[in-house]
């Protein structure tokens, strides 16, 4: 079974499950599956375009935790349900990123093979009919059009008036950080402290 099964399932835990000795993390997830499912439904509204609905969902998620202030066991149980959904969403995101990368690589390979095959076809056909600009087949038609493009033989030989100058700049955050940490004030920049959290 997966976390997704727990999120999709809405049935309450059976008495046999409730009486099982020493429940593990998965069993605890099953016992809290109703809350986990509700958290998952609210989480779906966190990436919608309607700011009002998104704000409402965030408010409900926060209120569900805040109402357990002073009740440590209930708060821990609810927080655990949040963690189930967070882990599931991150797992789904990682899987889809892997799938997207795999599909991009497959598409790149297929596009490359198609280009090579088309180039071979055109090469043979134009050898047979050098003046043709169009080829018609029973179910397809191969057409061409003329265009012009500039090819640069030696960029260094071009006169300056035929060169366009492009410059880009961006903050050197690593150097700025070291300077600020050393006590050197830099206009337009300041240090901030962050705490990073991770679910295990």
Instruction: List the secondary-structure elements in sequence, H or E.
Output: HHHHHHEEH
Q: Enumerate how many helices there are, as a single number.
A: 7
CA-atom Rg in angstroms: 31 Å
Shape: flat
**DSSP helix fraction:** 55-70%
Tell me how many strands there are: 2
- Main pleated-sheet profile: 2 strands, antiparallel
Walk across the major sheet and give the strand order: 1-2
Contiguous runs where pLDDT drops below 50 for at least 5 residues: 1-25
As a percent range, the share of strand residues is: under 5%
Give an account of the 3D structure:
With 200 residues, the chain is mostly helical. The chain has a domain at 3-91. It has helices at 3-8, 15-19, 25-31, 33-43, 51-66, 72-128, 173-181, and strands at 134-136, 141-143. A two-stranded antiparallel ribbon has the order 1-2. A hairpin with a 4-residue loop joins strand 1 and strand 2 (141-143). It starts with a helix and ends in a 19-residue tail after the last helix. Mean pLDDT is 81; it is low at 1-25.
Salient structural properties:
about 200 residues; mainly alpha; two-stranded antiparallel sheet; 7 helices; disordered N terminus
Summarize the structure.
The protein has 200 residues and is an all-alpha fold. The chain has 7 helices and 2 strands.
Please write out the topology.
Layout: H1 3-8, H2 15-19, H3 25-31, H4 33-43, H5 51-66, H6 72-128, E1 134-136, E2 141-143, H7 173-181
Antiparallel strand pairs: 1-2
Helix pairs in contact: 4-6
């Amino acid at each position: 079974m997966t976390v997704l099964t727990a999120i999709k399932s809405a049935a309450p835990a059976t008495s046999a499950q409730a009486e099982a000795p020493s429940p593990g993390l998965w069993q605890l997830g099953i016992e809290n599956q109703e809350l986990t499912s509700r958290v998952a439904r609210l989480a779906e509204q966190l990436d919608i375009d309607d700011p009002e609905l998104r704000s409402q969902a965030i408010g409900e998620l926060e209120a569900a935790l805040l109402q357990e202030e002073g009740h440590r066991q209930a708060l821990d149980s609810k927080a655990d349900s949040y963690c189930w959904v967070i882990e599931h969403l991150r797992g789904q995101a990682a899987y889809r990123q892997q799938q997207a990368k795999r599909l991009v690589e497959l598409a790149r390979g297929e596009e490359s093979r198609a280009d090579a095959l088309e180039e071979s076809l055109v090469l043979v056909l134009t050898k047979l009919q050098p003046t043709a600009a169009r080829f018609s087949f029973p179910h397809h038609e191969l057409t061409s059009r003329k265009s012009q493009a500039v090819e640069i033989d030696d960029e260094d030989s071009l006169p300056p008036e035929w060169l366009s100058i492009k410059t880009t700049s961006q903050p050197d955050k690593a150097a700025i950080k070291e300077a600020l940490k050393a006590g050197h004030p830099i206009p337009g920049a300041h240090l901030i402290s962050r705490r990073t959290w991770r679910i295990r």
